[in-house]
Amino acid sequence: MTRLPLDAAHACLVVFGITKRTREYDRWVKDDGFDLDDFLQVLVDSPYLCCLDWRCELADELPEFAEGLAGLGIDLQFEFFEQGNSGRVACGGNMGAFSLSASDEHELDATMRTIQRVIPAGFEIRAQLGNDDMDQATYAILSKDAWAELANAAPAFIAEVFPPDRAVI
Fold first, then answer.
1. For residue 98, what is the enclosing H or E element?
2. Closest by Cα among 109, 115, 44 to 75
3. Separation between Cα atoms, residue 64 and residue 47, nearest integer Å
4. SS3 65
5. By the 8 A CB rule, do 105 and 54 touch?
6. Per-domain residue ranges of the chain
C-alpha cells in the first residue's frame, strides 16, 4: 500500500481547497502520513471533486459541483430537462448538452467531457484511476498549473489517483 507523506498530503489538501483539519483527516492521519486509500476519504471533502453514481440523477449532483467550482472562478450553469439526467451546461458563453441513461454508466465520462469543453481552457478535469471498476465515478477539476504543482509535490498521488492520461478530453 502506498504511503503519502504528510508534506505531500498537505500540498494536496491545499490545492484541493481543504484548509482546515476535518474529522476524516484526524481519523486517518498517521505520524508519517496517510495510506493512499485512507487519504481518498479525506479528499472527499474537496469542493473540486465530483462523485457520481451511474444510478444518480445528475440534477441532484452537478449543481453542488458547480458551487464548489465557483471557488476557482468558474461560473458553471446547468439547465436540466425532465427526469434530471439530461440538459445543458454553460460557462462563459460556451454551452454543451449532456445526457445520462441508467443503462450506460460510461456516459458519466461523456458528461464530464461536455463540462470540460465549456470551462476555461486553463482548467482540466481528470477521472480517478479505478473509476472503470466501480458504480461510482470520481472526477477532479483543477487548474493545469495546480495539476503540475501536485505532480511535483505528490508524484505518487498523481500517478496512482489522477494521472495525466485520465484527463477527460
1. strand 94-99
2. 115
3. 8
4. helix
5. yes
6. 3-166
Asked if 51 and 74 count as a contact pair (C-beta separation under 8 A), the reply is no
Q: How far apart are the first and last CA of the chain?
A: 30
* C-beta of residue 100 within 8 angstroms of C-beta of residue 109: no
d(CA 22, CA 9): 13
For residue 129, CA distances in Å to 21, 126, 136, 159, 167 come to 26, 9, 12, 9, 10
CA distance 50 to 48: 7
Distance separating alpha carbons of residues 20 and 98, to the nearest angstrom: 35
Residue in 148, 130, 149 with CA at minimum distance from that of residue 138 = 130
Q: Which helix (H) or strand (E) holds 142?
A: strand 136-143
Q: What tens digit of pLDDT does each residue of 41-76 get?
A: 999 999 999 998 877 888 888 999 999 899 999 999
Q: What are the cell numbers at 82?
A: 425532465
Chain segment 122-142, per-residue pLDDT in tens: 999 999 998 877 778 899 999
